[in-house]
Each structure stands twice: as structure tokens, then as C-alpha cells.
Amino acid sequence: MKGLLVVDVQNDFCPGGALAVPEGDKVVPVINRLMKEFPVVVASKDWHPHKTVHFKKWPVHCVHNTRGAEFHPDLESERIQQVFLKGTGDKDDGYSAYEATNLNLTEYLKGKGVDELYVVGLATDYCVRATALDSVRKGFRTYLVIDAIAAVDVNPGDGEKAIGEMKNAGVTLVKSGDLL
Ligand code: VGL
Ligand code: ZN
After folding, report:
1. Quick one: which of 113, 112, 131 has its CA closest to 121?
2. Is 119 in the pocket of ligand 1 (CB under 6 A)?
3. 126 lines ligand 1 (CB under 6 A)
């Protein structure tokens, strides 16, 4: 069974947001098309408290229950069957969707019979990276849809480096066109 995991396609990671990923919103139409092809569609949200050590590294973003933490308005979020909230603590970053605190992602996916997980969203070099690496560790056949991700690139090349790490860890790189 195939599952699609949409990572952090939230206003604060899109142009105009508090921690904007360059061209972060370009993933939205690609993800909208992909969601129609998958029987299981889930998403994560970066969902921070007002005060957290995470904001020593990053501008304040995705504070829970704020507009910046909402999904991008063009994302067809009615197709998302379950949202996983991560980064909810005040002592760590919580980059991986497998660190969600409202529900256990591994248990949820196994309960739905998912064995192949396709990862898309933001940002390639942080939450997408951490989530895809965890996904391999948890035993899912893990795919990265390379035209449905975008990187923060604090240092130029961070996104490309992260893609290399994921590939080396056993993540399979695919293009959305191969899935449609
Ligand atoms: C993220 C930086 C800080 C992400 C979250 O979603 O990739 N990046 N918080
Ligand atoms: Zn964050």
C-alpha cells in the first residue's frame, strides 16, 4: 500500500512567511496532483509553542494556532486524512514527522497497511530530510519526489547535500511525472 506524506506545506515556509523557503509554494500544484493518486494521504505540521529552544536557531515561525502555521491556502488540504503535529515541545527541534506528539506516525501508517511512503514538501534540508531518514529506519520503502520539495539553503547546496544523504541512506528518488 502506498502512502503520501506531505511535510510542512505551511504559510510560514512559503514566500511572505516568517521562514520562507525560496519558491516553497511551487510544490503546491505538484502535491495537489499527487494527492489524487494515493489511497493514503497524511501531512505533518511544524507546530511550535511561543517559547522554544528552536527559536534560538530560527526566526519565530509556525507557532501553533497561528495563520503562519496553517497550510498554504492553495493546498487541497481536504484530501489530507490525518495531520501529525511536530516540534511541539520547547526543548528540541522536532524536525521529523515521526516525532509527532498528537499521534504515532509509524503506528498510523502500519495500521493503514502502508509499506511504501512517498515524501514531499518543505524543507528538503530539514524536515523532509529528517522525516525521510527516519522513514527508512522504521522500515518503510521510502521515496522522495524531487520536484515536490524545496530547500531553505541557509548555505548554498544544503538541499542538494541533503538529497545525497537521503539517497545514500536508501531513499529512492523519483519525479512526480513517473507517478501520474
Ligand atoms: C523546518 C526549519 C525550522 C522544516 C522547520 O519544516 O523543514 N525547518 N523548522
Ligand atoms: Zn520549526
Report:
1. 131
2. no
3. yes
Residue 122, beta-bridge partner list: 150
Active site residue 93: no
DSSP state of 78: G
pLDDT for the residue numbered 78? 98
CA 114–ligand 1 middle distance (angstroms):
25
Per-residue pLDDT tens, the chain, 180 aa: give them: 999 999 999 999 999 999 999 999 999 999 999 999 999 999 999 999 999 999 999 999 999 999 999 999 999 999 999 999 999 999 999 999 999 999 999 999 999 999 999 999 999 999 999 999 999 999 999 999 999 999 999 999 999 999 999 999 999 999 999 999
Tell me which ligand sits closest to the C-alpha of residue 123.
1
Tell me, yes or no, if 86 is annotated catalytic. yes
> Domains in the chain, please, with CATH?
2-179 (3.40.50.850)
Nearest to 126 by CA among 83, 97, 91: 97
Whether 8 sits among the annotated catalytic residues: the reply is: yes
Report how far ligand 1's centroid is from the alpha carbon of 2 (Å): 25
Mutate to test the pocket of ligand 1, among 47, 122, 144, 158 (most ligand atoms within 8 A of CB): 122
Exposure b/e, 9-42, CB count within 10 A at least 16 = b = bbbbbbeebbbbbeebbebbebbeebbeebebbb
